[in-house]
Amino acid sequence: MKNLRIALAQINPTVGDLSGNTKKIISCIRKARSKKADIVAFPELAVTGYPPEDLLLKRQFVKDNLEALHRIKEASAEITAVVGFVDEDSGIYNAAALISGGRLVDTYHKKHLPNYGVFDEYRYFRAGRRYPVYNLGGINIGINICEDIWNERGPARVQALAGAQLIININASPYHMGKALFRERLVSSRAREYGVIIAYINTIGGQDELVFDGGSFIADAGGEILVKGKYFSEDFIIADIAIGGKTRGSKPHKDKKELKSLVATDERIEKIDIPSVTAEGPKPKIAKRRAVSMTVNEKVYNALMLGTRDYVTKNGFRGVVIGMSGGVDSALVTTIAVDSLGRENVHGLFMPSMYTSKESREDAHAHAGNLGIEIITIPVDAIFRAYLETLSESFRGTETDITEENLQARIRGNILMAFSNKFGWLVLTTGNKSEMSVGYATLYGDMAGGFAVIKDVPKTLVYELCRWRNKKEGRDLIPERILWKEPTAELKPGQKDTDSLPPYHLLDPVLKAYVEEDRSFDEIIKTGCDVECVRKVIKNGGPLRIQEAPGAAGDKDNPARIRKRQAVSDNQQVQELLMEGSVGRGHGAGCRIFFAVFLMVVLFGGYACTDGRDSEKEPVFRQVPEIREIRPQKPVKIKLKRNSNGSYSWELTGDNADKIIEADRKLRKSLPPNP
Prior knowledge:
Radius of gyration: 28 Å
Number of strands: 22
Shape: globular
């Protein structure tokens, strides 16, 4: 039986801040060394922040990241560290550096690159082909990265079969409702199945639409959680683990046979020794950690706080300004802003019109008073009348309609932006997911702003979060009347949200099925949902959704980050196809057209040069060798034809057309399936 002291540094890196991230990493290395840890692990791409996206296309950025790793290496005497960074070797890799005693011992390259939902790693990285197992003081350790452990037959299983007793899996795993529990169960099942201890280290922080929730943990070989880190905050987890004997040795012949089936001919398993460098002497005692527990609503609220705080502070804003209407959405946004940024950094504007009720005025001011923030009242009636007078001649003979309603919203948007420009405050928009998903919002009006705090929060959940926050406070921090009065935009006399929308308790289940679960019209109807409600959800909102400000994700698939098809297509045609159930993810004629056109763009754009240098921008194409050989000498034309049944067919003509078609087929086969 051997003992190992392991530290998990759950840090909040900033994308692109190589200097700041490096300082955090070095500080945690020193802390781990002071605790006499044998090994300390950091999250995926800790040096660059995650996801670095198109910064990776800048060669200087990759070079600077390697120089940052060199500084980290120099600070790693008397300890072993696992650090996520970007490696470069005739392409770039999502990598983990194994540093020990001030030198780089080895580098692991991520094998399974996610290319679904919010992930786009095929665009940037090459896949690794090695399965290293490291020996540190007689303990065999496997290192892999995020998606590698989600694959049942992936690197973790190979390393376990090759003798690993401890797997260190470094991650940048985004939050969505229910994911933390699913993540723990999956990793625990892997530990139990493989017979190994798994140390799972996750990053935390907000990055545009993504929020990373932390919750790092260590699971023993029986799948039990030994220790767990905090959610939504930086943490330093340190634990002593006992590792004994071989974990998988009862059936060596069976293991050898399985290994052969898992490792491709161009892949290899390597055994690498790491000299023990931990400082001698007794190890200091480790304080016992309390169990971490949060309710679902508490996790959602903390995710929104973290996403808001990091977006504002990492972008260097001095404060935020919010249009406080006296409604539930602006109440929740303002409360989150105060909780995450401090009352001194939050400023409210109350902008009443002739349609604003007395109750709204009272509720907005009462709420501001409860929060202890300033609220400035700026009536919009005079500005609205000036607009109407200016437009009166052009609008003569027309009926009053949504135009006049939207004018009021845009006036308020202009006032908010004026305060933003004058004082350097970021405007927080207040639209929720239910409204935004069906286009119940005003472009350049209530959608104007820099960050949409609750854009991924359905209306029904807005109410739940408000009630949860009041309960936590022990009083009506958000005035009770806000939570029971009927929702209204107050842009015309007697207006209610239900004049334009189905009741939210009917609307939200449809949105969940359509936006998050990708169900078709027919599938949603079979669940018993109202037909007109389903049609309204599918028909409306596409062009508006694409122009939303970024906002923190709370649900599984953040629509703003990955749902863009309706804004770039013939909207009516897409709606018809969705209704007919003929649009699939990654199937059909539409997919063929996409790949054919994309291939030609890539080929003519020079990304598939025969020397392979420029093709580093799109490494997925290197996985189909035929593509690199195609260099059309004459124009290649694509002819699209709509068939009588509404589908499309296409014909490619010109030099090397047959080769391009065959390459297209192979490329589509090489891409991973959507989950």
